[in-house]
Write a structure and sequence with these properties.
Rossmann fold, 8 helices, globular, 232 residues, 47% helix, 7-stranded parallel sheet
Length: 232
C-alpha cells in the first residue's frame, strides 16, 4: 500500500486531497499545526494525523522518521498575507516564506531521502494562481508561491533520474477557510472574472493531484486549476 503525506491536510484543499487518496485505497497521513478540531475530524474520517510545524526542521525530520516510507508528498501547508508592501514587516515576510517555501523544502528534502532508494515517488507542490500572475496587495504571498514554481521545475530535473516526479498545482480562487474573509460583494466580483462562472472547490484540486499521481510520464509541470481565471 502506498503512503501519501499531505501537509496542512486536515481542512480545506488539503483535506479534500487527503480524502481523495483515502478513497483510492492509499495510506494517508496529514499534518496540522494548530487546528485541533480539524485534526479530530480528519482522524474520524480515517486519516493518520500528525501535529508538525512545517517551519521546524526538527519536527519535520521527526515526522518522516515516524512515517518511514512516503510514496507521494503533497506540500499543501500554506499561509496567506493580504497587505500593501509598505505595511509588511520583515517578520511577516519571513513567516510566509518559512511556511510556504521553507516547509516545502524541508518536506521534499526528507521525502527525497526515502524516494531515491525506492527509485520512485511523486512530489506535488500546491502553488497558486498568484504565483503565476501576481496578486495586488499579496506581493509576499505571490512571491512565495512563485518560488514554489521554480523549485518544482528544478527538482523535476534533479530527481527525474531517480524515478521521482515533481509537479505543481496552482489553484485559483477556491472556496476554503483561507478565502472566508471575502465579503459577498467581493466574492461576486471575483466570480465575474472566472470564465467558468464559479469558485473552485477542494475536490477540483484533489482531482488534479490524482491526475498527476496516475500519469507516470508527467513531471516538471504546473497545472493551473482556476476555471479560466488566468486566461489572457
Amino acid at each position: 500500500m502506498k503512503t501519501v503525506l499531505v501537509t496542512g491536510g486536515v481542512r480545506g484543499i488539503g483535506l479534500a486531497i487527503a480524502e481523495a487518496f483515502l478513497k483510492k485505497g492509499y495510506r494517508v497521513a496529514a499534518t496540522y499545526s494548530k487546528d485541533e478540531d480539524g485534526a479530530s475530524l480528519a482522524k474520524a474520517k480515517g486519516l493518520e494525523v500528525y501535529r508538525a510545524d512545517v517551519r521546524s526542521e526538527t519536527e519535520i525530520v521527526s515526522l518522516f522518521e515516524r512515517l518511514d516510507r512516503v510514496d507521494v508528498l503533497v506540500n499543501n501547508a500554506g499561509v496567506s498575507l493580504i497587505k500593501q508592501i509598505q505595511d509588511v514587516s520583515y517578520g511577516e515576510f519571513q513567516n510566509v516564506f518559512a511556511v510556504n517555501m521553507g516547509g516545502a523544502f524541508l518536506c521534499a528534502r526528507e521525502a527525497s531521502k526515502r524516494m531515491i532508494p525506492q527509485k520512485s515517488g511523486l512530489i506535488v507542490n500546491i502553488s497558486s494562481v498568484w504565483g503565476e500572475v501576481g496578486g495586488s496587495c499579496e506581493s509576499v504571498y505571490s512571491a512565495s508561491k512563485a518560488a514554489l514554481l521554480g523549485f518544482t521545475k528544478a527538482l523535476a530535473k534533479e530527481l527525474g533520474w531517480s524515478g521521482i516526479r515533481v509537479n505543481s498545482v496552482s489553484p485559483g480562487v477556491i472556496d476554503t477557510p483561507m478565502n472566508a474573509h471575502f465579503s459577498e460583494t467581493e466574492t461576486a466580483a471575483l466570480v465575474e472574472e472566472i470564465p467558468m462562472g464559479r469558485l473552485g472547490v477542494g475536490e477540483d484540486i484533489a482531482k488534479a493531484v490524482l491526475y498527476l499521481e496516475e500519469n507516470d510520464y508527467v513531471t516538471g509541470i504546473d497545472l493551473p486549476v482556476n476555471g479560466g481565471f488566468s486566461v489572457v
